[in-house]
Amino acid sequence: MQKENNLDLFPRVFKNPNLFLACGFGVGLIRPGPGTWGTLIALPIHHALSLVFNFEVLIIFWISMFFVGVLVCRASEKILGELDHSAIVIDEFVAFGLILAFIPNYLYLHLVAFVLFRIFDIFKPFGIGYIDQRVKGGLGVMLDDLLAAGYTIVVMIVLLLFVNLPLSERLAYGFLR
Predict the structure, then answer these.
(1) pTM summary value
(2) 131 vs 141: CA distance, rounded Å
(3) Is residue 69 within 8 Å of 140, Cβ to Cβ?
(4) How far apart are CA 161 and CA 164, in angstroms?
(5) Are the C-beta atoms of 9 and 29 separated by less than 8 Å?
(6) From CA 38, how far away is CA 125, in angstroms rounded?
(7) What is the Cα 87 distance to its own chain's centre?
(8) Where is pLDDT greater, at 166 or 149?
């Protein structure tokens, strides 16, 4: 199957629910840096959900979205005829949403986490590249970003040990908050 450019893909994304979700509601079509734009989708989603749901429900939501992402990526790869098409950004926004669930709702912490996550996602150190190259299909698309999210969360835990947040705020949201 021949690769599609973004202009050819645009109308299909808005007609197919799998592509619509996999492409981050169309954000994955933005150039340059679709993964970076896709990561940012997590911010409004997380902030809306965090007004209503507690830490545990947020974690369940983002983990559930990981499994939805595996299925949606698998279906989208079949439709597009390409493994891990650059327009597929559900992996970025789900992974970053999980990160946001673990850190306090401060813009400066979200910016630090964003930069760390993008570094881990782009450069793929510490086994992320291995997973990216070896695990294929929907699981492979989602798993390398989940691992990048895990590394980001660990680094944020260490950084938060040095940030002067009130103890009550750290305890309010689980072990990080």
Answers:
(1) 0.88
(2) 9
(3) no
(4) 8
(5) yes
(6) 21
(7) 13
(8) 149
Which DSSP string do the residues of 8-38 spell out, in sequence order?
Answer: HHHHHHTT-HHHHHHTGGGGGG-SS-HHHHH
How many C-beta atoms lie closer than 10 Å to residue 117's C-beta? 27
Of 102, 88, 138, 96, which Cα lies nearest the Cα of 118? 96
How confident is the prediction for the chain on average, in pLDDT? 89
Structure tokens at 35: 């993964």
Which whole number is the average pLDDT over 26-34?
A: 94
**Angstrom distance (rounded) from CA 69 to CA 58:** 16
Residue 5 pLDDT grade (very low, low, confident, very high; cuts 50, 70, 90)? low
Tokens 């199957």 belong to residue: 1
Residue with tokens 């306090």: 104
Tokens of 129: 């590249």
Q: What is the DSSP letter of 162?
A: S
Check if the beta carbon of residue 96 is closer than 8 Å to that of residue 117.
yes
How far is it between the farthest Cα atoms of the chain?
56
